[in-house]
Design goal:
Largest sheet: none
Helix content: over 70%
Order of helices and strands: HHHHHHHHHHHHH
Number of strands: 0
Distance between the termini: 51 Å
Number of helices: 13
Strand content: under 5%
Length: 293
Amino acid sequence: MPEPTGVIHDIGYQRYTGSRLGRRHVFGALYLHGVRTAFGLGRSAKAKIFPWLVVGIVLMVAAAVTAIRSRIGETIMTYAQFADSMSWLVIFFTAVAAPELVSRDLRSGVLPLYFSRPLSTADYPLAKLLALVTALFLLLGAPQLLMFLGAAFTADGMGGVWDELLDLLPALLYAGLWAAVFASIGLLIASLTGKRAFAAGGIVAVFLMTAPVVATLMILPARAANQLAGIASPSSLVQGVGYWTMRDLLITEPDGFAPDLGPFGPVYALVAVALVAACVALLLVRYRKVAAR
């Protein structure tokens, strides 16, 4: 009988004996990586230009508002008004960040690798959505906090600081609403294509091309149509919720412009919640189909 000629070489492979992290840790890693990706962290210098340009603009506006207020002693922009005035930047930030979060993975075909881990098909889109919501909230909330700190140092005693805090807290919730609506719509659109340019263009188109619909409904003779016109656009929908819930924080001048919502303020809030829920549901359906391929 011939002698065996095979040789087993020990090349140093060892069995893994450490702790095995589960689904919760994978979700957390996806979320943290998504937040970093939205701001270009851990990526090339080119990828950092636009997000940090936007961050710089909003912080400069907040610093300028704070400096002018400390100089003249009057509020020129409330925290809630700041969120409204920066909404156009949020649109473009969403159009750049959302495709980076999901379109790249779709195009490179790495999703089967994600789903081969202890990760459900719902965990991936929810982690990405939460990351984008967090990034947009930080984009609006951090400058609001900067404005608050500037106002607190110039306030008249603790009573003045408390009044500022009471103005800040609802404005932070308002910023959260902006973030939730814009992120859910933007990520859903981005999940439909692996091409980032198409995804970005689609996001901008949805947000900007719905504005003429609102303008058209505003000129109709039916008053109810005028009062419900804001529902047709994500931006005016969020603003409608804001005017209904915190009118005094958005309109500080006696002759300031305020849309006529009539009795439909609660309708705006319900539509905003339903819109976010529908986008999340469609996002989950989308990734269920992707995972089934």
